[in-house]
Amino acid sequence: MAQVNQLNLDEVLVPEVSNIMSRKGVQKTILGFQRRRVQPFNASTLDQNNAVGMFKLSGSSNTWIDPSSVYMHYKLTPKLTNTNATNQVVNIDLPHGLLFDSVVTRSKGTEIDRVSKRFAMMKDFLIQTSAGDDVQQKHLKASIGYGASGNLTTLSTGSISINTATDTTASLDVCWQHVGFSVWGSDQFINLNKLPLELEYNLMSVSDLKLFSKFYGVGNPTNVDIDSFKMENVYLSMNYVEIDPAFSQAFEVFLNDVQSGENSYYELHIDGWNEQESAITVATGETQYNLPLNYSNLKAVYSIILKTDSAGNGARWLSPYENYGGHYYLLNSKMYPAYRTADVTEAYMLMQEAFNHTNRNFHGSQSDSQFKDNCFAMCQNFEKSVGLVHSGEPVANSLQVYINFSSNPSAGLTLVSFSLFGKVIRVYNSGVVVQQ
Amino acid sequence: MATQEIEKIRIELESYYNKTYDLETDLEIMEEDYNFMKFVDRLPPNEKEVAKIAREYYQKYPKWRPDELLQKYKNDKKKETQNALRQKLKSRHRK
């Protein structure tokens, strides 16, 4: 009974004391939004001499970022040589993500995500697929700079049209939405006090860029070459969510108490990408390729048969059919699909499944032969729905893909497999733990 | 915004916060609550519920210090548990 009296006394005294002291003003609204920009701290212009852009993002406990609002801005100026006749315009297609060889994300000294050349590979693979607006394909396209809507035409960095001249430069203002990779792929707000970020953008070399860029137009694309490129006035812009500092303090006190000890952490869920490459064996029949992955939540995998077409400067990376005679993925000794696929239409179906294209005419924008010659892919979606929760499959070095060729494939092909998996970043006071 | 949409939001908010809104007088409160609901949606899973509770107490007692708010919450929880226990004992006694 004594305890109940004590409680009542608290209730009476505390507000009275608070009213007398009147320690804080009360904001009418708890939330506020504003847009800010962050410039690289090491260089504002990136080129072959300054090929790394470093960004640092930090803030107070009441500062949050909306990851879906993050854009990178820069003025892109490639220096080109065009030996076509006067006024023969050639366009160059350089999607946003293509210009970066890798992007590394760190927090409190721990690397939490790294994306590499797969940007360019995926771009090359997806550029010819039809425009889709499903989640996974959006994710793929966003990863390589095609934005969330999946519209290739309007969201490509550019087609820069150039007239004939040697050493021609043409500039384009670029705005690249960062929704598809690393922490920017999260649908949660990011607290910059709990998860301060350091981002490292590494430019692609000009020779690599030539492999992935595409020229087209009136002039002969093979008469165009990229000499160099630079990005000026580079910065990131994003929406900051500001919560009332007084409420932020209250929230922290509640958090520290309710989630005491081991449970006191800040958790961010993102998608991670892995890329594996292995040489394709020149042999007729079935060959096994190991995909050494170790993840608790593998959502999807797709493999392409990569071929570098080195004909002139119009060089492209292709993923041809190459006498393909069927495939299946083996995960934890279980076949996906349950039998060997040996039909191009069935490969379409698998791709639809992996990209959630159910009941759609996936190849509406390309013919069978285009699909077979340029962007043939083997896919498997491991995501399953349990109630409202979507999760993938655990994989502990137990994923293989078996590919059958009806006759020998060409020499020099590479099997490139991209895997999409769930990643949990737990931030404790003492450091960051990445679970994947 | 169309009336239908506002009505839809009102229903969503009423079920989310477990309270009622008057469309004539509470539009500003609805806007604030709606924004906060969207904010909570995008918090880490382990922080969602805590944010709702913290805001509820922050708004109820706007001039209190954070530690006082927390103490009040704890006291309320204790009371709630005691009441539940009493109810349980009463119902057992009736049987």
Describe it.
The complex is a heterodimer of chains A (436) and B (95). In chain A, strands 14, 16, 17, 20, 23, 25 and 26 form a seven-stranded antiparallel β-sheet that branches. Chain A folds into two domains: 31-251, Adenovirus Type 2 Hexon, domain 4; 267-427, Jelly Rolls, CATH 2.60.120. Helices cover 19% and strands 45% of the residues of chain A. Chain A is α+β, with helices and mostly antiparallel strands and 436 residues long. Chain B is mostly helical and 95 residues long. Chain B contains four helices and no strands. Chain B is extended. Classes of the chains: A alpha+beta (436), B mainly alpha (95). Chains A and B meet through α1, α6 and β14 of A and α2, α3 and α4 of B.
**Which architecture of the largest domain in chain A would the CATH scheme give at its second level?**
Distorted Sandwich
The number of helical elements of chain A comes to: 8
Order of helices and strands of chain B: HHHH
Q: What structural class do helix, strand and pairing data of chain B support?
A: mainly alpha
Strand content of chain B: under 5%
Structural class of chain A: alpha+beta
Summarize the structure in short:
The complex is a heterodimer of chains A (436) and B (95). Chain A is of the alpha+beta class.
Sequence-ordered SSE layout with sheet pairings:
The complex is a heterodimer of chains A (436) and B (95).
Chain A: H1 2-21, E1 31-38, E2 52-57, E3 63-82, E4 90-93, E5 100-107, E6 110-115, H2 118-126, H3 135-143, H4 152-155, E7 159-162, E8 165-169, E9 172-177, E10 190-191, E11 197-203, H5 206-212, E12 214-217, E13 224-243, H6 245-258, E14 266-279, E15 285-291, E16 294-309, E17 316-318, E18 324-331, E19 334-341, H7 344-354, H8 368-374, E20 377-381, E21 384-386, E22 389-391, E23 393-396, E24 399-405, E25 414-427, E26 432-435
Antiparallel strand pairs in A: 1-13, 2-11, 3-8, 3-9, 3-10, 3-13, 4-7, 4-12, 5-6, 5-11, 14-25, 15-24, 16-17, 16-20, 16-23, 16-25, 18-19, 18-24, 21-22, 25-26
Chain B: H1 3-17, H2 27-41, H3 48-60, H4 66-94
Helix pairs in contact in B: 1-2, 3-4
